[in-house]
Amino acid sequence: MQQPSSLSCTERLAENRGPGLAMQYQDTSHRNLRLCLFREAIDPSRFKVVSSAGLSHLDMEFEVHVIATSHLVRCGRWSELLSCTGGSEMGPVFAMGPDFSGRQPFRYLDGDLRFEFEIGLISTGGTSGLEELDRTRARLGRYPVHLASEFAADKAGHCPPMTCLGVRPLERGLEVSSLHYYPQEFTAVLSRSQTTFR
């Protein structure tokens, strides 16, 4: 089994917190999120990249990018994109959303690649939802690689729009857990993907 000590990160922690990001938050909706898996390395410069981390694992280079309230994961010729926008002229080999109902986790197999994805929602209209949001953010902060970005809050005392990613190496791949918070909808989107190579 590959030990975590083999993890080589070019950036362990990349956080943008405090008064909020300088870029303006676009009032998007969690209802527009789509998951796409591409058999190509999507160029992150197509997006407004907020924070990034790279890591070496299993003799491969992985990249993880927070792109506003979305994320992009790249590994060799594969890219995972959870976003409200497209990311490629090529069509994805696997796509779903914005309706994520159905049996979870969702799975895709292609040669030596196995991809699993699951998604859920937290309603933050009450105190318990906000507490769960805080617990989830803290849990993701304990991952070996952690990215967190917050936009400026539009009202004092309100929890701002944010994206948090927690990344951990697996014996044969990578796990990426995400939190995308849309305060105008009182909704947080949680996702977890596992990309493994057989």
Characterise the protein shown here:
With 198 residues, the chain is mainly beta. The protein has one domain (4-197). It contains 1 helix and 14 strands, in the order ββββββββββαββββ. It has one helix at 127-140, and strands at residues 8-9, 13-21, 34-38, 49-57, 60-67, 70-75, 78-83, 94-96, 106-110, 113-123, 145-151, 162-169, 173-182, 187-197. The chain has a 7-stranded antiparallel beta sheet, with no helix packed on it. A 7-stranded mixed beta sheet has the order 2-11-12-13-14-10-9, with helices on one face. The protein is globular, with a radius of gyration of 16 Å. Residues 1-25 have low confidence and may be disordered.
Summarize the SSE layout with pairings:
Blueprint: E1 8-9, E2 13-21, E3 34-38, E4 49-57, E5 60-67, E6 70-75, E7 78-83, E8 94-96, E9 106-110, E10 113-123, H1 127-140, E11 145-151, E12 162-169, E13 173-182, E14 187-197
Parallel strand pairs: 2-11
Antiparallel strand pairs: 1-4, 3-7, 3-8, 4-5, 5-6, 6-7, 9-10, 10-14, 11-12, 12-13, 13-14
Secondary-structure element order, N to C: EEEEEEEEEEHEEEE
Q: Give the averaged pLDDT, no decimals.
A: 81
Morphology: globular
Task: Indicate the percent of residues in helices.
Answer: under 10%
Structural Rg: 16 Å
The strand order across the widest sheet is 1-4-5-6-7-3-8
The CA-CA distance between the termini, in Å, is 14 Å
Unreliable spans: 1-25
Structural class by helix and strand composition: mainly beta
- Residues in β-strands, percent: over 45%
Total count of strands: 14
Give the number of helices.
Answer: 1
Biggest β-sheet strands, sense, barrel: 7 strands, antiparallel
- Number of discrete domains: 1
